From TrEMBL:
Keyword Lyase listed: yes
EC numbers: 4.1.1.23
Swiss-Prot/TrEMBL catalytic activity: orotidine 5'-phosphate + H(+) = UMP + CO2
Record's keyword terms, sorted: Decarboxylase, Lyase, Pyrimidine biosynthesis
Family statement: Belongs to the OMP decarboxylase family. Type 2 subfamily.
Name by which UniProt lists this protein: Orotidine 5'-phosphate decarboxylase
One function term, GO molecular function aspect: orotidine-5'-phosphate decarboxylase activity
Pathway(s) it belongs to: Pyrimidine metabolism; UMP biosynthesis via de novo pathway; UMP from orotate: step 2/2
Length: 283
């Protein structure tokens, strides 16, 4: 008899309880590499990513490498990404691969295998995906996640202002596209305890979201804190009672404090404290 791996939702909830919910990005922007005194090439990218992992993987719940910043260096950049994921996981962080993949189902199956099959060199704890070829096109990733104990975060209401023209569009049944993605996720997570493995990406920049049903019984990845202008103090105003399921993401807001490990840790700790205060205030 084969035993199923522990679901991502359970692993994430435990990490949030033990470490706090903060997710820090690993985004080797050219400007950050320069600010850190590194070359804008694959060696600089590797030094950057390794520094973040060494500073933070033993303390934050989630590290989120942004695949685009590694892919820009071609196959050697992807090899750095593979090592980054493996090292971060070995050091105790959950790794959320921010790849925002989405395609027709048969191609989606290949994306799913890339990030969610334990045999893959890019195997991660979870991956971001785009539902804009239709939520149903994500089925191969949703199914593989269930099998491999991994998670999927679906773009619902993104942090960028341009997202509204698609996500606020209203369907024939009167529901917005973003609300429909949230409804699908709620159905996917039904009955899961302590929390489902299917998350939504919902920007912390979006203001009051009380008109949406955010109670999806799954995690809400909230990018936009720091460089995009949102603060941890905004979280309760945006998410209301769902704030306890929020995984707030900060990338440049922490990374700009490098390259020293102590300064990176202190910056992450400041954001973590602010998040803790905001969530406690909502109790
Ligand atoms: O709606 C979204 C979805 C993903 N992101 C990603 O998160 C980080 C944010 O970086 P900051 O430096 O904290 O602004 C980045 O990797 C984005 O691609 C997002 O911002 N919004």
């Amino acid at each position: 008899m084969t035993t199923r791996p522990e679901p991502f939702g359970a692993r994430l909830r435990r990490a949030m309880d033990e470490r706090g919910p903060l997710c820090v990005g690993i985004d080797p922007h050219a400007a950050l590499l320069e600010a850190w005194g590194l070359t804008d090439d694959v060696a600089g990218c590797e030094r950057f990513a390794r520094t973040v992992v060494e500073a933070l993987a033993d303390r934050v719940a989630v590290l989120k490498p942004q695949s685009a910043f590694f892919e820009r260096f071609g196959s050697r950049g992807v090899a750095v990404l593979e090592r980054t994921v493996a090292e971060a996981r070995a050091a105790g962080a959950l790794v959320l691969m921010d790849a925002k993949r989405g395609d027709i189902g048969s191609t989606m199956a290949a994306y799913a295998a890339t990030y969610l099959d334990p045999a893959s060199p890019l195997f991660s704890d979870a991956v971001t995906v785009s539902p804009y070829l239709g939520y149903g096109s994500l089925r191969p990733a949703l199914d593989l996640a269930r099998e491999s104990g991994t998670g999927v975060f679906v773009l619902a209401l993104t942090s960028n202002p341009e997202g509204a023209e698609v996500q606020h569009a209203v369907r024939a049944d009167g529901a917005s596209v973003g609300a429909t993605v949230l409804r699908h996720l709620k159905e996917e997570n039904a009955g899961a305890a302590p929390m489902g493995s299917y998350g939504a990406v919902v920007g912390a920049t979006l203001g009051d979201l009380s008109s949406y049903d955010l109670a999806i019984n799954g995690p809400l990845l909230a990018p936009g804190i720091g460089a995009q202008g949102a603060t941890a103090a905004d979280l309760t105003g945006v998410f209301g009672a769902a704030v306890r399921d929020v995984v707030p993401n900060v990338s440049r807001g922490v990374l700009r404090h490098g390259p020293g490990a102590a300064a990176l840790r202190a910056a992450a700790e400041r954001f973590a404290d602010e998040v803790r205060e905001a969530v406690a205030g909502a109790a």
